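Q: Please design a sequence for this.
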């Protein structure tokens, strides 16, 4: 495990450096000068510190959050294929954001409102899966099947909303595929508190989640 963590940390550092160096307008030497505080070019400082750096941080932390979400779901549902996109969470979040935008309750000029709508939609999608599984929640295979069905229905509803108001909701395609385009410090400030909160919660739940992966009988015998 220690060697793997070291290799992953090295790869992460390489990716971070590539994210800062990639692109036009600033040479690698200019990026290094900005990071060392010796640059005298305000344009280079703006590109590196106001455009590339926040985009890099948002991409890395958002990816880490997706990884943690998948790990939690795989442990809780005891299914290695479980993930937010096949348990109703991601499709519900997309539907919540799209519906709230279409109804005028949220907009792209108020990202916090869109995120709240997406969270409510994600909880609704997960709740729908919970209700459908009923007493079969202990069956990983049946839960996975219900999850795929719930995700398909929610994705279909999103497509219907987009067809009803294509002009008004054309920009919400980024909620369907994801994008780091135009990510700035405002998005980072919106992301990191939630990432820290739920990352800490997942860390505290590591013990119970490990027991759940062993099965309901073993978890009950251990007092969970």
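A: Design:
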């Amino acid at each position: 495990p220690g060697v793997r963590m070291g290799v992953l940390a090295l790869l992460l550092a390489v990716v971070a450096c590539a994210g800062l160096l990639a692109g036009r307008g600033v040479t690698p030497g200019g990026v290094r000068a900005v990071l060392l505080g010796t640059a005298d070019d305000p344009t280079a400082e703006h590109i590196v510190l106001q455009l590339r750096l926040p985009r890099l941080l948002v991409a890395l932390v958002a990816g880490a959050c997706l990884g943690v979400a998948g790990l939690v779901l795989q442990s809780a549902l005891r299914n290695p294929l479980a993930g937010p996109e096949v348990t109703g969470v991601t499709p519900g979040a997309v539907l919540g954001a799209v519906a709230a935008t279409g109804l005028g309750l949220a907009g792209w000029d108020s990202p916090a409102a869109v995120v709240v709508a997406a969270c409510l939609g994600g909880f609704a999608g997960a709740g729908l899966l919970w209700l459908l599984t009923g007493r079969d929640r202990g069956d990983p295979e049946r839960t996975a099947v219900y999850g795929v069905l719930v995700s398909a229905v929610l994705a279909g509803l999103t497509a219907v909303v987009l067809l009803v108001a294509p002009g008004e909701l054309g920009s919400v395609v980024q909620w369907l595929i994801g994008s780091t385009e135009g990510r700035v410090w405002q998005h980072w400030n919106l992301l990191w508190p939630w990432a820290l909160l739920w990352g800490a919660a997942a860390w505290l739940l590591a013990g119970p989640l490990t027991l759940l992966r062993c099965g309901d009988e073993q978890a009950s015998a251990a007092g969970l």
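Q: Thanks. Anything notable?
A: The radius of gyration is 21 Å. The chain is about 75% helix and 0% strand.
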